[in-house]
């Protein structure tokens, strides 16, 4: 769970495929999504979850709530969590890793990644490829900026958001409020419109890029959203058609809003 006083996540829900995400049992007890409220929900091997299970998360990712219907009652649980998911590029797990071709051919990666629906992926703000770690990587010196320093920058950016947004972070802002606080510069808006047409962004995708760009601006302590922030937000978001296998790609990580 996220604790505002320490800016730390103190617990995480790590799920196996097809766990009870929304509710448990005939008494509609809260599922893992609600138990992850104000925390992190991590889904490993994302395509191994059924389409029905994944698509059931579309509502809470938008509203931060889950409504469970039973014959004699309707129960609404809070479910505002940060979703983090991971997957291999293909079912074999070898497509593109260190130049190794998938044993099943190019269709393996395409078929495996297509198990995750377009509407679900449209709600994923950040999608990145994580290269495989090589022996040479292990011999490199540690990065100059460690986890403690990064956590400090994130906490500072969150404080900026809370002060500007009246106690809300960027993920919680209503669309009309977002358009006000994340108004991009002229060059930034021009780039966003061009990219939206080229990448085929939906209206939801358009506003998610804008929301992410506002957060990137906060991390750089910029009062306004510039073209650089829009460009970086777009680079962190793939086209809706899905990911393609890339060299040295061992894992694909996908992130949604908190």
Q: Could you walk me through the main structural features you see in this protein, from its secondary elements to its overall organization?
A:
It is a single chain. This protein is an alpha+beta fold. The protein has two domains: 2-134 and 239-256, no CATH class; 147-235, no CATH class. The protein has helices spanning 32-35, 51-55, 58-63, 106-113, 118-121, 135-138, 147-164, 175-181, 186-199, 203-219, 227-235; strands at residues 2-3, 8-9, 12-15, 23-24, 29-30, 40-43, 65-70, 73-78, 82-87, 124-131, 249-256. It has a five-stranded mixed sheet with strand order 3-6-9-11-10. Strands 1-2 form a two-stranded antiparallel sheet. A two-stranded antiparallel ribbon has the order 4-5. Strand 7 (65-70) and strand 8 (73-78) form a beta hairpin. Helix 8 crosses helix 10 and helix 10 crosses helix 11 (227-235). It is globular. The termini are close together.
């Amino acid at each position: 769970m996220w604790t505002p006083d320490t800016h730390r996540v103190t617990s995480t829900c790590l799920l196996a495929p097809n766990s009870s995400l929304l509710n448990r049992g005939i008494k509609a007890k809260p599922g893992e999504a609600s138990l992850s409220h104000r925390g992190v929900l991590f889904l490993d091997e994302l395509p191994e979850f059924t389409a029905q299970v994944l698509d059931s998360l579309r509502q809470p990712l938008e509203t931060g709530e889950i409504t469970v219907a039973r014959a004699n009652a309707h129960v609404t649980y809070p479910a505002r969590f940060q979703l983090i998911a991971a997957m291999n590029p293909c079912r074999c797990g070898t497509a593109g890793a260190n130049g190794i071709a998938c044993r099943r051919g190019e269709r393996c990666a395409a078929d495996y990644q297509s198990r995750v629906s377009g509407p679900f992926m449209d709600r994923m703000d950040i999608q990145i490829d994580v290269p495989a770690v090589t022996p040479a990587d292990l011999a490199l010196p540690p990065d100059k900026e460690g986890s403690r320093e990064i956590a400090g920058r994130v906490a500072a950016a969150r404080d900026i958001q809370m002060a500007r947004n009246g106690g809300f972070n960027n993920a919680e802002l209503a669309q009309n409020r977002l358009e006000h606080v994340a108004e991009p510069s002229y060059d930034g808006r021009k780039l966003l419109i061009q990219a939206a047409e080229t990448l085929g962004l939906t209206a939801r995708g358009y506003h998610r890029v804008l929301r992410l760009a506002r957060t990137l601006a906060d991390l750089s302590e910029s009062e306004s959203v510039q073209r650089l922030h829009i460009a970086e937000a777009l680079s962190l978001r793939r086209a809706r058609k899905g990911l393609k296998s890339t060299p040295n790609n061992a894992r694909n990580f996908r992130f949604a809003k908190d």
